[in-house]
Prior knowledge:
90 residues, mainly alpha, elongated
Amino acid sequence: MNEAYKNLSEHIGKFVDFDAFYRYFLTVIKTDDQSKINKWLLKVLFVLLKQNQNHKHDFDKLCETVDMQKREELMSWLKESLKKAMEAKK
């Protein structure tokens, strides 16, 4: 399954949008069995989500360790800082 995820990740990187990737995907699948395809895609998604679950950003780790009030302050700060940065980038 990890190999399937690796292969899919490599192919996804070659496309700029989902539609182009999807058309490619339809040309390389080796079955018409939708159940098999769905199971395979769900396995790939599962591996991705498990990997992301184990690789949290430091900010997320911080928010998990502080009390609720501090967490809300940090989230508000992040939201405002991101908003200002995006506006400055325009």
